[in-house]
Inverse folding.
């Protein structure tokens, strides 16, 4: 399948693995790139030396293009932006802010710049700033989310821009990919489906929660702090949601008890104190497979439907 995204990024398939904080490291990223997609390493707030090591280890495992996701509100965003240039990363995706001040330097280094956007207004700003493409991410996604759904957001962003659009949120199989293409997208970004891949290094408890999740097993917490996140329902996430709803948790208390909760989920599998970020599509994810099989299944399903 050839689209402007495969031509832009030099990949076989227009599938990008989500830059999930604490999850997206070199083992997963290299596996997705080797499968024909674009793997991402999550920058988050990790130390620069660690991220440099991750990038170099990824290069040892694949000769295919891969990228880094930068959360622009992270305190080390400036250093990570420069690290991507120094290490010759192919692609940078960004979230939680405007990457405008970095774009000229990235493009001079031949890095493709793809911001993640939750609205048409931000998508237009990113195109004007020089982005090569955007990821239009619907509220069905795991982790930090906007409020617009994928089906509503993607066609509006497509209509507003000249650059290609990648759809994200609620896509886990070929049907989702084909639907995104019908809406005008030229690629998809997928996160939750790769949580249940053999190469994903998350705690087994996290994988089990994803596999066992039903369609109603996700909950959004943190809207009143201004940083809404979609999680798998656990006692901890229900406590957060209820505390937010009835006012028993102030925004300050909420922030305090969620500090470090993602690491506790990903690394420790701690269901009492961990935030297991996951998309609403988890109910469709029922088995653990290699990334290669996941990518090829999605592509085969999408191509069959789009051929109709």
């Amino acid at each position: 399948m050839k689209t402007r995204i495969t031509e832009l990024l030099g990949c076989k398939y227009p599938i990008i693995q989500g830059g999930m904080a604490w999850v997206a490291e070199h083992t997963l990223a290299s596996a997705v790139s080797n499968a024909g997609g674009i793997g991402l390493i999550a920058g988050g707030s990790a130390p620069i030396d660690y991220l440099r090591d991750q990038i170099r280890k990824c290069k040892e495992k694949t000769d295919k293009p891969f990228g880094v996701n930068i959360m622009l509100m992270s305190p080390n965003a400036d250093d990570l932006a420069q690290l991507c240039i120094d290490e010759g990363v192919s692609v940078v995706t960004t979230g939680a802010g405007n990457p405008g001040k970095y774009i000229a330097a990235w493009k001079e280094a031949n890095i493709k710049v793809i911001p993640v956007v939750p609205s048409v207004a931000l998508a237009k700003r990113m195109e004007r700033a020089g982005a090569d493409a955007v990821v239009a991410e619907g509220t069905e996604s795991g982790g930090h989310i906007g409020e617009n759904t994928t089906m509503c957001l993607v066609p509006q962003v497509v209509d507003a821009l000249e650059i290609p659009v990648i759809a994200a949120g609620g896509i886990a199989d070929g049907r989702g990919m084909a639907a995104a293409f019908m809406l005008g997208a030229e690629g998809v970004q997928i996160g939750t489906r790769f949580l249940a891949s053999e190469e994903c290094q998350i705690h087994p408890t996290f994988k089990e929660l994803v596999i066992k999740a039903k369609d109603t097993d996700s909950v959004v917490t943190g809207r009143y702090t201004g940083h809404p996140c979609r999680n798998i329902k656990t006692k901890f996430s229900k406590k957060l949601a209820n505390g937010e709803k009835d006012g028993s948790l102030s925004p300050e208390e909420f922030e305090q008890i969620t500090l470090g909760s993602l690491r506790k989920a990903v690394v420790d599998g701690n269901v009492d104190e961990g935030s297991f970020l996951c998309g609403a599509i988890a109910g469709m994810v029922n088995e653990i497979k290699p990334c290669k099989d996941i990518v090829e299944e999605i592509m085969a399903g999408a191509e069959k439907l789009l051929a109709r």
